[in-house]
Please model this.
Amino acid sequence: MAETKTLKEKNAPLIWAYLLLQIAVFLLFVYGPPEPLSAQSLAQVDWHSLTPATLGIGIVAFVRLILLGLIPSKLRDHLVHGRWVHPLPGSRAFSDIGVHDPRVSIAAVEAKYGPLPSDGSLQDQKFYALYSEFRDDPGVLDAHRNYLAVRDITTLNLLLAIPLPLVLLGISGDLRACVVYACGLIALHLVGIVVVRNYSNRLVANVLAVASASAQSAGYGTPKTKEAI
Model:
């Protein structure tokens, strides 16, 4: 039986492609726009001068392999979602996200799965139980994969915004370039927070929509007819 890849494994090529893009941008700030390659220009390159830039490349790889694993998941969720109280969207699944999605019948979900809590932590727990039941639905899988990819990229932006500008300053001595580069990474992180929120809300909404459809197809939450009374 073939081994099924996890969502993170499926996202790995995208994450590495993004890191290669970050490396290219970093080298652009260090060395400026590249000149057209020729045999003569390659012969004139001082390859020893490229050694400091490998430090930046090493930092990118280190961030991807090590630092992402060192950050506690709770701290990562706070930083990536931009919320300090109940950062995960599951904590607003029934009180906010579900009630504003026209595909979701909260009454049907509650009729099948029991009372829906209003407390953020309890909502998150209840939502996770629903997610575990419908995690293999294609719409849920797609939303979850997109969410994980953007979450990791947003985390990387924040982690890279700390060491790489300092490395750039040490190599080039250009404070202005260092500030511009750092501001660019921070801006990407802020944009990432918005995108993460959108994808995570979509994940929650898709789970609730599937749960609602399942409940309604089983006869929960549907108005009673006179014949049924």
In short: Confidence is low (pLDDT under 50) at residues 37-51, 223-229. The CA atoms of residues 130 and 172 lie 52 Å apart. The chain has one domain: 9-30+49-217.
